[in-house]
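In the laboratory, one determines a bound structure by crystallizing the protein with its ligand and collecting diffraction data. In a computational setting the workflow is compressed into a single prediction: the sequence and the ligand go in, and a structural description comes out. We illustrate the idea with nicotinamide-adenine-dinucleotide.
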Amino acid sequence: MKIAIVGTGYVGLVSAVCFAEKGSRVICVDNNEEKIKQLNKGIMPIYENDLEDMLNKNKCSKRLEFTTDLEYAVQKSDIIIIAVGTPMLPNGHADLSQVESVTENIAKFMNEYKIIVNKSTVPVGTQKKVIKLIRDNQINEYDFDVVSNPEFLREGTAIYDTMHGDRIVIGTDNERARKIMTKLYANFNQSIILTSPENAEMIKYAANAFLATKISFINEIANICEIVGADVQEIAKIIGMDKRISPEFLSAGIGFGGACFPKDTKALIKFTEGFGYDFKIVKSVIEVNENQKTKPIEKLTNALSCVKGRTIGILGLAFKPNTDDTRESPAITIINDIQKLGGKIKAYDPIVKDIDKIKFDNIEYVDTAYDAVKDVDAVILVTEWDEFKQLDLKKVIKLMKGNIFIDGRNIYKYTKMFKLGYEYYCIGKKDSQYYKKSR
Ligand code: NAD
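The predicted complex, in structure-token form:
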């Protein structure tokens, strides 16, 4: 099939590569000229496992091309997928301006029947708004259908998720669109759920709000575990054995970040407020998450009587492993708080090197994890990269000036850390102080 994908970000680019891999001819459009120039040279604008190889392979096979020319892409394609950003407005609502502007232009450039698919995360009712926008902006009255097709990929495993997802949700009331969309996804061998546009739009927000709720729930359990001396990892493992609960999304830590959960939970609250509904659970989920991001600083200030003038090593800047995405990363809150307290920062992330992505001055970005811990008073582990799980912890403590280690992702065993001489703090467990007292 001939597809145009508008927006070559984490969702658009990955979807484009996967559709091309499955045999469709895909034209990727972005209004960021630099990004398109890079993509045409085979340079990846984002970090995602397996993306580069698959992209270059499909580019060579002429199934994938990159352009800033939306008119060309619309006119050469049967299906136009919108995958632009829907960031959060200052008032918490989803900003639909990118979706709206792309829709208006698609309408102007249409030259025959088209299916317009919305993959961006949008509030319920957006499919209807897109239909109206197309009608209002068409130059000639061509027939068209608008489908809601929310995306569930996870950054870090985005290619795998697209190729092996749990389900594909197609929201349309129209039989012709239903048939074409089912054909488009036929060789993905995944469950195809045909539903109404409103259901499809709501499913995406409900899924993200539920997953965010699971994270905040286990983080609250972790906070209680610290008070009562229980171990959240043990609790999560055992409650996760119950099929009704499942072990996924039960890792206690320092809160969720990224481009989706923070903005989508807020958008859901704002959207439902518009109907006079007070979404209490999701409000608490956000409040718990904001509080959780402050846990490393709480532990740091308890351990170090004064942060001013001290150097703190930060391991990990991305909001989660295997991505370069720092949007809403807990690292931002942590670095901000340390700097406010007068501390100095040495930071290392295996992928995030671009200083502009985290907007702070006075951070010493270093090239290895060992450089980040050298001569520091304390270390805070922010992102659960595999590389950090394999660190030589004897070497780390020798390189450090102090011995305080705050593990925001519970990747080490506190008994081992204590034996090595660390003053070790983690999330939702007896920390080293407690361990010392209880021995
Ligand atoms: P992104 O910011 O990485 O990418 C958006 C792209 O759209 C950018 O490259 C931008 O230049 C381009 N763009 C903006 N306006 C444009 C225009 N007028 N014409 C052409 N291109 C334009 O965003 P993303 O993370 O890929 O997310 C896209 C959508 O998918 C959002 O609604 C998001 O909520 C949703 N989503 C994201 C994820 C994720 O993990 N990132 C997962 C599921 C759903």
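The mean pLDDT is 95. Keep in mind that any predicted model is a hypothesis to be tested, not a measurement.
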